[in-house]
Structures are given as C-alpha cells and as structure tokens.
Amino acid sequence: MRIDIVGLPASGKSTLAVSISNKFSIKHIHLDEFWFEAGGMQGRRVTPNIEEVHIKVREKVEEALAADSWVSDGTYLHVQDLLAKRADQIVFLDIPLWIRLARHAKRIFFEPKRHAHLTLWDDLTFFRELIRRNFSSGPKLRNFITEHQDKVIILRSNTDVLKYQKSLGL
Questions:
Q1: Within 13 Å and on the Cβ side, how many CA atoms surround 100?
Q2: What residues does 92 pair with on adjacent strands?
Q3: Theoretical Cys-Cys bridge with 41: which of 1, 46, 154, 157, CB 3.0 to 4.6 Å?
Q4: 86 touches 2 (CB < 8 A)
Q5: Is 29 part of any domain?
Q6: CATH number of the domain that 50 lies in?
Q7: Domain-embedded: residue 79
Q8: Is 166 inside a domain boundary?
Q9: pLDDT in tens, 128-140
Q10: Containing structural domain, residue 57
C-alpha cells in the first residue's frame, strides 16, 4: 500500500495520513516535517537558500520511498513527481477554502501545536497564506492531478473522506 495524499493547506491531509498509518502500521511520510528539518520557513518567500532546502527535502523523500508501504501527506510540487511515480493511489483532498480557513482557526485555538517551532503570529499570518495558495498553488495542483488521473481519487467533502476511510476499514 502506497498512498500519496495531496491538497491545499488545512484540507485534512495529515489527519487522514495518520489514521491510515496507524491502522496499517505503515510509514508516514510527513512532508512538512522534512521541510522544516531542512530549514524551510513558513512560506517560500521567507526561506533562505530555497534550492538547498528543496534538495534536502527531495533526498529525505527518496530515502522514505524505499519502504514497501507508506502514506505521505503534503503538497510540495518539487517532490510530488517522486511520490506519484511510486504511489498506488493519489488522494486529492479538494476541500473548499472556507472550510480550510475554519479548520485552521480551530487548530490554532483548540488543538495542540502541530509545529512547535511556529509562533502564534506565524499561525495567524498563515490565514493570508491559505488564501494566497488557493490561487497560486491551486492551479498547479490541479494540473498535477490531471497528469496522474489514472491513480487519483478526489474527495471534496468530509462525507467523501468518511466514505473513503470506511472503504479502507478505518
């Protein structure tokens, strides 16, 4: 089982990946962790040495893909080709922006910190980044999905996600 979960920020990628990883005891490839470990910052525009960070993330992904079974979450288009080639299935969480904004607010104020090195200010300014990425990364992600449509399952709502989870026995 090799599943690549993609979507725009706050679409539920990590939540779904963790549940799959736990259920089947398979490796969880969390691209955000690779990004931050490599020196990536909150946004591409504030990350120094962006090419160096991309190289480090790519190396970590290549290493992680050696596992027979895995589930990945994150949308990093500079490594998505590696994941897509090896994935049996690509799950695209195509969740509307308003739901993703509400989810981000919920995780800031009601859930434990996901990324301990980010401040409250980082989390608050990420609202702007959520909106920006909807228009900047959204079209690129949709092109990626079109290129790999033979492997893609599109989930557009919580109901779709629940049905998918049930199909996996979660």
A1: 22
A2: 6, 154
A3: 46
A4: yes
A5: yes
A6: 3.40.50.300
A7: yes
A8: no
A9: 989 999 998 899 9
A10: 2-161
3-state SS string over 40-58?
A: CCCCHHHCCCHHHHHHHHH
Q: Report the amino acid identity of residue 44.
A: R
**CA atoms of 71 and 47, how far apart (whole Å):** 26
Q: In this predicted model, what pLDDT tens digit does every residue of 43-102 receive, in sequence order?
A: 555 667 888 988 999 999 999 999 999 999 998 888 999 999 999 999 999 999 999 999
Neighbours of 75 (CB within 10 A): 24
52/54 Cα distance (integer angstroms):
5
Question: What whole-number distance in Å separates Cα of residue 151 and Cα of residue 170?
Answer: 21
pLDDT for 119 equals 78
* Number of domains making up the chain: 1
State the Cα–Cα distance between residues 19 and 170, nearest whole angstrom: 7
Helices (H) and strands (E) in the chain, counts: 7, 5
